[in-house]
Amino acid sequence: MNLNHSSGLLHRLFALLRSERRAMLAGVLVAVLGTLAGIALIAVSGHFITAMALAGASGAAINYYTPAALIRLLAIVRTLGRYLDRLITHDATLRLLARLRGWLFGKLAPLAPARLAALHSTALFSRLRADIDALEHIYLGVAIPLLSALAVMLGTLTVVLVYLPWLGAGLLVLFMASAWWLPAWTWRSGQAPGSESVACTDMLRELADDGLRGRAELVLFGAEAMHAERIAAITTKQQAARRKLDTLQAIGSAGVMLTAQCALIGALLLGLPALHAATLAAPDLVMLALLLPAAFESIAPLPDAWAQLGASLLCAQRVFALADTPPAIEEPISAPPPASSTDLAIRQLRLRYDDAPSWALDGLELDLPQGARLALVGPSGAGKSSLLAALLRFYPYQGSITLGGIPLEQWQGDDVRARIAVVEQQPYLFDASLRENLRLGCPDASDEMLHTAIAQACLHDYVASLPHGLDTWIGENGIRVSGGEARRIAIARALLLDAPILILDEPTEGLDAVTASTLYESLAALAQGRSLLLITHRLGKLSALVNEVAVMRDGSIAEGLSVAAYQARGATAAPAMPAALDRQALNVP
Ligand SMILES: Nc1ncnc2c1ncn2[C@@H]1O[C@H](COP(=O)(O)OP(=O)(O)OP(=O)(O)O)[C@@H](O)[C@H]1O
């Protein structure tokens, strides 16, 4: 990463955090003030004690009021500075964290699901969390130590130049060595093992997540040992990389200590002759001898801070690259004119996933007029879920979809999704209470509204049996509820959304006959007064919910027919292409 690129990243980061600049600046000021006061306290105390001792030995009079007052002042400033430093810098850090996380979430939300589909979700989110923490650390772990060290170096150089100019020249070289050359070397040398360590951490996160989610399969197929070996191999690689980084850090710290000792020896070598020649007083020499190690102590975190800066800039690069990814769907700037109906019309629809060799939807044509009830049947892979993704404005497509006569591209994605309620094949339930999961459909819903939706979704008995009722915790992805209960929760959620168009994706797939029958009643309630698109492999009993059937194959509608015609054929699975197509019923050209 070159200097221009690095400064560009830093500039962008600080521009992003501009709203917090006052808190950040206040934190820097108190941190610098506290550090300077601490070092000055040591130096002035050394000077004062020596002067007092010499005055006591020689019997000379000495003004001890001024230095004693100064020492008290410095002690107060140091103590207050440290207290305020913790208070203000940590408050500023938390503000930065909140700002960065909110900003990143705002950037990521429009990328889902199309642009995030290729990324491993756990790895992505844990990596992003680590990256955001690293960005926030630029302030606490890089900016503050660097600025404090700079202030200390300038202050120390000024004092030393006043007393021993030659020592000042040498000190400048030692400061350069410990604050610039040495950290630059450790940073450069640490880049390769640093990247290796980050890559290993990402891989370990993915493996740990896969192992936890798929632990039943690992046990069933006796693959636990193999999985553990993969984890062990990557852990070994990571340990090797960490060892290199630790060694570099140790060399960095030792280097700073060495330069500190060199500075002290230099001070004695130049100071003692000056003392002898009476051009330097003994208290001044003691002050310098105490000042230099204390100053170097403030520089000691610099190799680590520089290394942290390098790692943080890499994180910034990754975060900005993700945040700059254009969303798959561009949202229109203005709201569409109010639509008079909720007719859906699809013409020559084509959709292809990134890197996919063929079209998932290829010339699909379909109408769902307001109030119509249509089943979309077809074999696995025919493109049914892809049609759903296009309708919900999750993926870009070619061709045209209109809602209420207005092209979908003129609708805001959220407005489309407010008009189309979907009960997915495997609805996602959040690791939250039943109430919170239901309120996703209507954030302001009262408990009374929730109970009405629960009753309509035939969930009443289930909820009544829960000791904590609506406050029952559902668990990660609804792990504490059965498949049938999860679908009925999703149905209640869709009812609360109260959208005019309803899409059900395989609502009874994988359920036993009793659960499917209960669910059927919920679905009938849900479909009341709405347009209905039922996506399924097999129609079965669900045929009572719809009037027409569209058969989908290879990404397009192969035929359209009435339910009676479909059933007369005795079809339970997707039928072969018939000779006569009742396309008119579906307005399929
Ligand atoms: N995210 C994706 N990336 C690449 N290809 C995909 C993706 N999702 C689906 N496909 C492919 O697109 C085609 C249509 O898939 P789709 O999921 O729409 O079919 P489906 O009819 O809903 O299948 P099923 O009934 O099994 O759910 C398939 O060939 C599938 O492999």
What's the arrangement of secondary structure elements?
Elements: H1 3-16, H2 21-58, H3 65-108, H4 121-163, H5 165-213, H6 215-220, H7 224-276, H8 282-299, H9 302-323, E1 344-351, E2 361-368, E3 373-377, H10 384-391, E4 398-403, E5 406-407, H11 413-419, E6 420-423, H12 434-439, H13 447-456, H14 460-464, H15 483-497, E7 501-505, H16 513-527, E8 531-536, E9 548-553, E10 556-562, H17 563-568
Parallel strand pairs: 3-8, 3-9, 6-7, 7-8
Antiparallel strand pairs: 1-2, 1-4, 4-5, 9-10
Helix pairs in contact: 2-3, 2-4, 2-8, 3-4, 4-5, 4-8, 4-9, 5-7, 5-9, 7-8, 13-15, 15-16
The structure holds adenosine-5'-triphosphate.
InterPro entries: AAA+_ATPase, ABC1_TM_dom, ABC1_TM_sf, ABC_CydC/D, ABC_transporter-like_ATP-bd, ABC_transporter-like_CS, P-loop_NTPase, Type_1_exporter
Domain ABC transmembrane type-1: 25-311
Domain ABC transporter: 346-579
Description of the structure:
- The protein has 589 residues and is of the alpha/beta class.
- It has two domains: 10-323, ABC transporter transmembrane region fold, CATH 1.20.1560; 344-378 and 395-550 and 570-586, Rossmann fold, CATH 3.40.50.300.
- The protein is 61% helix and 10% strand.
- It has 17 helices and ten strands.
- The protein starts with a helix and ends in a 21-residue tail after the last helix.
- Bound molecules: adenosine-5'-triphosphate.
- Adenosine-5'-triphosphate is lined by residues 117, 353, 356, 360, 378, 380-386, 537.
